[in-house]
Design goal:
Nucleotidyltransferase, domain 5, 5-stranded mixed beta sheet, alpha/beta, 12 helices
């Protein structure tokens, strides 16, 4: 089975007729795969119409497709307005503000939609406005919901017909009136030779348009009256009014040929069957058993083409659909985040595994060299002891010479020099000033910068005393120690 969305079903129904046009998605002409209709006598009040719609949807498996539906013009009030703006937000505000001029309901009871038809040379804009009572649209949606259908779009038949004409009759030989015979009523639209909608009128009717040629006169009179009324209303409302050069007739379920001759006599204008199939349909034209122009126009709109668009989907449905889109996006973002998190965890796990493997390798190497490491440490200690014993600067006389070398040339004497080969040197004496004592200590530490005399780096003054009399003056007494680092470490 093809996935949902490969095909689009246009559903149109009332108490006498249920229709479905099925087309495949395409960027060019329509690819018709089915055209199904069912006639009957049903009612909304007793539930028979709901049951009929449910049975029709089940029988033709309509729920497998993306579904759009069409509301007839005679159930909805529409007007073509000339507004002094070309901005969509301003146009929407003007249409809503003027709604109560055209329908006896408050704006809160209405569903309002509009579509720009064309911009006028005066800088104004021609706008098709639709004012649908909420109950009409909600009843339509409820009947579809009973069959488990939530339509993607709810189109107005006027916009569908205008779209079909713009696609198929944009270069008409003259101005014309399009009469569409719908189940439950009729719609008459006035177009100029460029296929632009100028005026429209819808009328509810109980007339059966499916008549034999010999019975055509019974319905043609009504058709003639409505066409003349449409042209009369157009002449009153528009300064551009004209006499129709021809009348084109289409029907949702009937064959219009039996009506044409009598209608031409009734209106005095040439009448002919509208022929848009060749211009609109690329394949599957043999499925069309009636010139159902409104559903063909809806199929064009459903594929994103057409400039006249009136969509009456309730706001509640749009909100639910938007929420569904947000949830779908959130799920995608969650899945993406989970994938990234999983990738990061995998990378971290791989890093940990590599580090554990490297650590195990190092432990193995450590165990292989541990036995030899003990012997190396023992030999190092032996070499250290030997170096200390054979060091040329290690004799007491050499240490004394180093101390004397560090002593200042004058102002300081050494009264005591003590050497212990295990613990270090003690140097005591007197000096004329503390500066000489400090200089002496610094000089010994400078000797320690020589690697052979590094013991002197630890030269430390343990005390000084400035209250020592000598030859009738006061001098400083000092005491320096030079510990041997090797022995200090052993201690």
């Amino acid at each position: 089975m093809a996935r949902k969305g490969d095909h689009i079903s246009i559903v149109q129904f009332d108490e006498r007729l249920i229709s479905r046009l099925r087309v495949g998605r395409s960027s060019g002409k329509l690819e018709v795969t089915a055209f199904d209709q069912e006639h009957g006598e049903w009612s909304v009040q007793d539930g028979s119409l709901e049951a009929a719609v449910r049975g029709f949807v089940s029988r033709f498996r309509v729920d497998e497709d993306e579904v759009c539906t069409v509301l007839p013009r005679h159930d909805i009030t529409t007007r073509i307005l000339i507004l002094p703006s070309d901005r969509p937000d301003e146009i929407a505000s003007m249409v809503r503000f003027s709604a109560e001029e055209y329908v006896p309901y408050s704006a809160d009871e209405l569903m309002i939609a509009q579509s720009v038809l064309r911009e006028l040379p005066t800088g104004e804009t021609s706008v098709l406005a639709a004012f649908a009572h909420r109950e009409v649209v909600e009843t339509h949606m409820r009947l579809l919901a009973a069959a488990a259908i939530v339509p993607e779009h709810v189109y107005l038949s006027t916009a569908c017909l205008a779209t079909a004409v713009a696609e198929a009759l944009a270069d008409a030989p003259g101005d014309f009136v399009l009469v569409n015979l719908a189940s439950g009523g009729l719609e008459a639209l006035v177009f100029n030779r460029r296929g632009q909608l100028l005026f429209g009128r819808g009328v509810a009717s109980t007339q059966q348009w499916r008549v034999a040629p010999e019975d055509a006169a019974a319905v043609v009179e009504e058709l003639g009256v409505e066409v003349r009324a449409t042209l009369g209303a157009y002449r009153r409302e528009s300064p551009e009014a004209f006499e129709a050069e021809r009348i084109l007739v289409a029907a949702d379920a009937a064959q219009v040929e039996p009506l044409l001759a009598a209608l031409e006599t009734e209106t005095g204008a040439p009448c002919q069957r509208v022929s848009c199939t060749q211009a609109l349909v690329g394949s599957g034209a043999e499925h069309l058993t009636a010139p159902a122009l409104s559903v063909l126009g809806a199929a064009v709109l459903a594929q994103g083409r057409g400039q006249v668009l009136i969509d009456l989907v309730p706001e509640s449905v749009k909100e639910v659909r938007q929420l569904r889109v947000v949830k779908r996006r959130a799920l995608r973002m969650g899945a993406l985040f989970a994938a990234v998190l999983l990738a990061v965890c995998g990378w971290f796990y791989q890093q940990v595994r590599q580090r554990e493997a490297y650590r195990a390798e190092l432990d193995q190497r450590l165990q292989s060299v541990a036995a030899r490491a003990g012997g190396v440490a023992e030999k190092r200690e032996q070499l250290r002891i030997i170096r200390r014993e054979v060091r040329p600067a290690g004799s007491v006389l050499q240490y004394l010479a180093n101390v004397c070398q560090a002593a200042p040339e004058a102002g300081l004497n050494i009264t005591e020099f003590r050497y212990d080969h295990e613990y270090g040197l003690d140097v005591k004496g007197r000096a004329e000033s503390l500066d000489l004592i400090n200089a002496f200590g610094q000089a010994m530490r400078d000797l320690g910068k020589n690697a052979a005399l590094d013991q002197f780096l630890g030269a430390t003054r343990t005390y000084e005393n400035d209250n020592i009399p000598e030859q009738n003056k006061r001098v400083w007494e000092y005491h320096y120690t030079v510990p041997f680092a090797e022995k200090e470490a052993e201690k």
